[in-house]
Design brief:
globular; two-stranded antiparallel ribbon
Length: 264
């Protein structure tokens, strides 16, 4: 099984007395990507490829391109309407409602990549488009932006049933062909047979996939493996599977070779 990169999701987590808005910090996963990419790798690129917000934007951007080109004939994911970049006034309102913004403030601390490496101009423009302000090459931002992905209101039903598995598997394969790997295939991540959350997804080009061939090979089949695990976990009575059933195949008796028709 592929090694999942533990990405802290950007979401509001209810607690007994308040809610907490969590933020992505690439330093939290340096132990994972550092040995693969090198500890001097730009944190801006790590963030752009792995922050749940950017992961959503990159995946939905690729989906939108494919739909415009006629490569996707039906909705494979809950429709994304865009994103909101909350202002200080919004932050104050949420704080008044008990929302905790722990982790938003990040002290300026010089070179964030511990040794250099600037983000190229194209990456800066992409990041500027997504968060509404340019990123500083080699610098940590003093306050991370508060961002929210806006999606259509879906029904509470997952739609993951024995009769829908073939269609769901086809959609997953289509996403993989577009070089989008959701990496979170499970029943709770579906609504009306469509994927909801792409916060853990990797979309090529991706720095980890380019640097680690083993990780790339595992990631390309991860969604298929998790699809089969979902079918088994939900005890769905269906013969639809994404991967070969090696457990079943190993029990089959090998066929005896046919006898030669000619004499020795």
């Amino acid at each position: 099984m592929p090694r999942p990169l533990p990405l802290p999701q950007s979401f509001i987590e209810p607690t007994a007395e308040s809610s907490q808005f969590k933020f992505f910090d690439p330093e939290d996963t340096r132990y994972y990507w550092g040995p693969i990419l090198g500890h001097s790798f730009p944190l801006e690129t790590i963030t752009f490829h792995n922050d749940p917000f950017f992961a959503e934007c990159r995946a939905y951007g690729r989906i939108k391109e494919a739909q415009a080109k006629g490569m996707l004939k039906r909705e494979v994911a809950v429709r994304c309407e865009g994103f909101l970049l909350l202002q200080d006034e919004d932050r104050k309102i949420l704080e008044g409602k008990g929302v905790d913004f722990e982790g938003q403030d990040v002290a300026e601390s010089g070179d964030c990549d511990s040794g250099g490496g600037d983000v190229d101009d194209q990456k800066q423009e992409e990041q500027k488009d997504f968060v509404g302000r340019p990123q500083k090459p080699g610098k940590r931002q003093g306050r991370q932006p508060v961002r929210a992905i806006v999606k259509e209101l879906a029904s509470p039903e997952s739609g993951v049933e024995a009769w829908s598995l073939r269609r769901i598997l086809r959609d997953i394969r289509l996403l993989n062909q577009l070089k989008i790997y959701n990496r979170d295939i499970r029943k709770d991540n579906f609504r009306d047979e469509k994927l909801v959350d792409f916060g853990s997804s990797w979309t090529e080009p991706h720095c980890i996939l380019e640097a680690d061939k083993d990780e790339a090979a595992e990631t390309t089949v991860e969604d298929l493996v998790k699809f089969d695990e979902m079918v088994d976990m939900e005890a769905l009575k269906s013969d639809v599977r994404a991967m070969s059933n090696w457990g079943y195949c190993s029990k089959l008796r090998p066929r005896k070779p046919k006898a030669s028709s000619g004499s020795a």
